[in-house]
Every structure is written in C-alpha cells, then in structure tokens.
Amino acid sequence: MASKKGIATTVIILAAITGASFLLWMIPQDNETTFVVSDYESYLDGVKSIHEILEESINIEYRNLLDRKITPQEYITITEVTSSQVTAKISEFVTSKPPEEWQASYISYMNALKKFNSYITETKVLANLIENNDSQEEIDKLVQKIESLKAESSEFVRISNESRPT
Questions:
Q1: Which domain holds residue 80?
Q2: I need a labelling partner for 17 at 20 to 30 A (CA). Which of 31, 39, 77, 127 fits?
Q3: Is 0.85 surpassed by the pTM of this model?
C-alpha cells in the first residue's frame, strides 16, 4: 500500500510536469533569437582572438597526442570541450545579423570556425584510431585530411580578413 507522503509527492511531480508542458504549449515557439552586435569589427576581432587561443591549445594537445604524452581518452575529453566552445561561436555568428558590408567577412569567418570544428572532429577520430591500434596507413591518411582541414580553416580566416570593410 502506498503512503500518503508518496502519493502527495507523485501528485506534486505530475502537477509540475503538466504545468510545465502547458506553459511550453501556450508560449509561442516562433521566437527567433538574435545575437545583437553593435561594433562588428571589435566583435570579429574578439572571436578571432578566442579562435586563435583555442587553435593553439588544441594544436598543443594534438602534438601531445601524437607524441603519446597524453592518452587518446584525455585528448577526446579536451576536443569535446573545445568543440562545444567553437559551436557556441558559430551559433553567435548565425544569429548576429551583420550589416551588408560585414556579411562577407562574417560568413567567411563562420566558415573558418566550421572547418576548425571539422578539424577538431577528425583529430578526435584519429585519437580513436590510435587507441584502437589501427594501421599506420589509416592514421597517415587521416593526418593528411586533418592538415587539409586546418589549411582550409586558415584560408577562410584570410578571406574574412580581406573582406572586411575599410
């Protein structure tokens, strides 16, 4: 037989869930979130600084992985944190709505961040290959892809810099 305290707790939990569901149903979901930027140059400079720090950090840890100074699992943990930070910056770009004169630069930098995130993802795949003792041929092929993604990201940064309004 259920206790009165257990029944009361269950009723309270069900009421809270029902209330929350009702609120979600009643509140319009069409709200488009916009990240408001008033100084587009400073914002882009700030994102560029953060990107450079993240890139340097992940490159150091990537070298440590290749030199076997850290385990693949330690590296994967680092990449997950870094990737989530990059994803947050990409989301800000998507919602920032820059004026027309800044759009080309912003789009190029957003593409640089996307390539950087792909780079991080592929280094994570490499960590898994190393952990599973895959063939050196597979590892070498993936390292080439990783270097290509890194170069593409750098190229988008260059294009973004050249696209900035004067």
A1: 40-163
A2: 31
A3: no
